[in-house]
Amino acid sequence: MPAGSPLVETLGAGVVKRSTRLDDGRELIYYDDPGTTLGPERAADARDLPARPETATMRRDVLTGDWVSIAAARQNRAFLPPAELDPLSPQTAANPSEIPSLYDVAVFENKSPSFGPALAVAHGAAPAGADAPADLADLDAPGLGRARTSVGRCEVVCFSPEHSGSFGTQTVTRARTVIEAWADRTAALSGLPGIEQVFPFENRGEAIGVTLPHPHGQIYAYPYITPRTTSLLASIDREGADLFARILEFERTSERVILQGEHWTAFVPFAARWPLEVHLVPHRHVADFAETTDAERDELAPLYLRLLRGVDALYDTPTPYIAAWHQAPVNRGRDTVRLHLQLTSPRRAADKLKFLAGSEAAMGAWIGDVPPESAAERLRAAVASIPEETP
Question: pTM for this one?
Answer without folding.
Answer: 0.95
